[in-house]
Specification:
The chain is an alpha+beta fold and 185 residues long. The chain has one domain: Lactate dehydrogenase/glycoside hydrolase, family 4, C-terminal (L-2-Hydroxyisocaproate Dehydrogenase, Chain A, domain 2). It contains six helices and five strands, in the order ααββαααβββα. The strands form two sheets. It has a three-stranded antiparallel β-sheet with strand order 3-4-5. The longest helix has 28 residues. The chain is globular.
Length: 185
Amino acid sequence: MNAFEVALREDPVVENEEGWTLKRCEALVRERRTRKGALVDTKAHHAGTTIVPLLSQVEPSVKFDDAERDALTHRIMFGGDEVVKAKAGGGSATLSMAYAGAEMANSVMRALDGEKGVTECTFVESTVTDAKFFSSPVTLGKEGVDTVHGYGTVNDYEKKLIADMLPDLKAQAEKGFEWAKANAK
């Protein structure tokens, strides 16, 4: 059993900001379509409506009717709540977060070691949208982030989800900036 299978066993819905939410998306798409190795991108931020699964970009391609898409999107967006409820308020998807963090750390180390083309999704300062920070695929290099990539082609449903979440995302980020400024030493 690999680390992801262990994480899924503890936390049936994998929860996080970016990497953890990607794992949740992949697991739920596989569950719905039995697609081994399904890759799903998300524009994931903290939780709820700021998580936008880009199901139109699933590789290999998967088609969902509107009802399936809506249900899957909701479950991905609010899966963290599902984990907290399952644990009766006693925690969150800790193994899933650890797994995603380990994957990111491994990618950073590979890039620092000189491997080319190492790409991960992360919450990063960017100009992809009018939000100062946004979750985006990035290419890592020896000096950190070499390239911030856009989120690619999305369908009208996903465009609306992104547009609808941006005000909340910006407000959440502003709270973080205010907290950091007030607590800077």
